[in-house]
Amino acid sequence: MIPFTAFAEVVAYAAGAALLAGAAGVSALYALRGRSIATLLAVVSAATVLATVAGIVAITLKMLISDHDRSVALTVTVIGGLVGLGVSLLLGHRLIGGTRSLLVSVRRAGESGRFRLPERRLPAELAELGTELSTAYENLDAARARERALESSRRELVAWVSHDLRTPLAGLRAMAEALEDEVVADRATVRQYHAQIRAETDRLTAMVDDLFELSRIHAGALRLSRQRVGLGDLVSETVAGTEPLARAKGVRLRGQAQGALPVEVDAAELGRALRNLVVNAIRHTPEDGGVEIVAGAEEGMAYVAVSDACGGIPDEDLPRLFDVAFRGEAARTPGGGAGLGLAIARGIVEAHAGQIGVSNAGPGCRFIVRLPLGA
């Protein structure tokens, strides 16, 4: 058995030689830190072999082993090191190949806008990186599509609002000039002109208010003053506020709430969203048709459903119904507004952490608003 002092001395010599070789390897890695992975792996393998050879030399010199035995040990160590170096080079070549194939895919994605994973099999980490890159490009493509759709909606909004403003302004100018030049003088006509000017002014004011509200929603500047209210009370107020419009259109309007439905909302803003939905339903419901508002609760959420008799909405238009300025071909009529009501309703509902959707149901369509139900 080797004495403890001799064993400790051997360990010290071997550790010292290995540390020197390891320090040389670390210095080489730092100096070559900008090189390829294959070069760095070769340095690691060479440092390992060098540390092993240095340790064996130190041990054999200390233990006074013969030159023959020392040569055999060193030969075996060098052969093993060369094999390890070859394996490291092969691994580095594979890593470099996978990295380059990923780089080619990224460059192609920069040209085409679509990222495709390389066909060759990649190491697990590179494969995971490729998957994340694919997901990132998909999200980026979706964001670009949303940006294009938003830009298109903005252009449509500018065009339609310009048209909707130009028509009443031209009428206001004509009536004002007629009154100023005393083209109309009889009391009844003058009174009629004044009433028309007031009506057009109110319509323009409502349009400007809608634009301001929409700009606040898009800018994230909508401030909510939440309070605990009953959803049934909001439904009753909405019905009372829109009843004159329904009566003038000849549309039956009915509202009901199923039980106590407490919600923490901004009553004024949510009331505006509900009125927008009901007004939209009344405008698109023919005479003698009906609009129904139902409030209830399901799956821990409060909901308000507005059903009309508009005849249904084309399936391709359903996803765009809440987009800014979208009115559909059939709705592009004078006096139809700027197409902001539904977009404002969606913004207000989403600001309350709620959801809004639409589907075809029965003789028309059904808008449904879902909100967190209060305790």
Strand content: 5-15%
Radius of gyration: 39 Å
**Mean pLDDT rating:** 80
Instruction: Decide which structural class fits the backbone.
Output: alpha+beta
- Enumerate the strands of the largest sheet in spatial order, edge to edge or round the barrel: 2-4-5-7-6
| Low-confidence runs of at least 5 consecutive residues | 329-338
Helix fraction bin:
55-70%
Keywords for this entry:
alpha+beta, 8 helices, 5-stranded mixed beta sheet, two-stranded antiparallel sheet, 375 residues
How would you characterize this protein structure?
The protein is an alpha+beta fold and 375 residues long. The chain has helices at 4-31, 37-63, 67-112, 124-180, 187-218, 231-249, 267-283, 341-351; strands at residues 227-230, 252-257, 262-265, 290-298, 301-307, 355-361, 364-372. The strands form two sheets. The chain has a five-stranded mixed beta sheet. Strands 1-3 form a two-stranded antiparallel sheet. A hairpin with a 2-residue loop joins strand 6 (355-361) and strand 7. Helix 5 (187-218) runs parallel beside helix 8.
Concise synopsis of the structure shown:
Helix content is 63%, strand content 12%.
Summarize the helices and strands and which ones pair or pack.
Elements: H1 4-31, H2 37-63, H3 67-112, H4 124-180, H5 187-218, E1 227-230, H6 231-249, E2 252-257, E3 262-265, H7 267-283, E4 290-298, E5 301-307, H8 341-351, E6 355-361, E7 364-372
Parallel strand pairs: 2-4
Antiparallel strand pairs: 1-3, 4-5, 5-7, 6-7
